[in-house]
Design a protein that fits this description.
Elements (H helix, E strand, L loop, with lengths): L5 H7 L6 H7 L3 H4 L10 H22 L4 H11 L2 H11 L9 H5 L6 H19 L1 H22 L4 H9 L7 E9 L6 E8 L2 E8 L2 H16 L3
Antiparallel strand pairs: 1-2, 2-3
Helix pairs in contact: 2-8, 4-5, 4-8, 4-9, 5-9, 6-8, 8-9, 10-11
Length: about 230
Amino acid sequence: MQKDLKPLMQKLGYTFKNPTLLENALTHSSYANEGDHRLSSNERLEFLGDSVLGFVTANELFQHETGPEGELTKLRAAAVCEKALYSYSKELGVGEYLRLGRGERHSGGAERPSILADAFEAIVAAIYLDGGLEPAKTLVLRFVIPELKQQRLRHFKDYKTTLQEIVQQNPGEKLEYVLTGESGPDHHKQFTVELHLNSNVIGTGKGRSKKEAEQLAAKEALLLMGYA
C-alpha cells in the first residue's frame, strides 16, 4: 500500500495536481517488475530530471559566478553528482516513501545512495511535468545553492597566504591589495581588487566580496609567477 505522500509534498514545498507523477518518481524498477504490479519505474523520469537539474544548476552558475568554463563545469558536476543528490534525498526523507521490491528493501535499498540519488532526479522531473520549470527550479536551488557554497569552501585554496609565504622569502618586498572598483546592487555586488608588489600590479581579481576578489588577485599573481 502506498504511504501517504502529503508529508513528503510538504517537505518538497510543492503539492501535486497529479499525485501519480510523484508515485511514479518513487517507484524503483525492482518494485515495478515484481509480481503483478506492472507499473512504470522511475527510470524515464530520472532521465528527464537529470537534464532539468543540469540546466537549472548551469544557469545559476552562469548568472552568479565569474569563473572560467572549467571551474563552472567542476562546480556543476559536484552539485549534481550522486553523493550530492543522495544527501538531498536524505534531507527530504525520500527513503521512507520509496516503492521497492521485497529483495531490494530487505537489502537496504531505501538507504542506497544510487537509488536515493536517482529518486531525487525523478522527483525533480515529476514536479517539472506537473507544474513547469519554476517549481522544479525552486526545489533544485533550495539544495544546490547551499551545496555550491560548501563546494567553494571545500575546494578553496588560500592563495593570499601562499603568496605571502613566497614573498616573505625576499626581505623588503611589500604586497598591497587595493580596491579599485565596486559595482552592482547591494544583494549582488562585485568588487575589483588590484594586487601590488611594491609599485607593480601583479594581479587583478573580481569577486562578490572583497576577500574573494583579493584571493583571485593573489591566484592570478601566483599563476604569473608559475606557482599555481
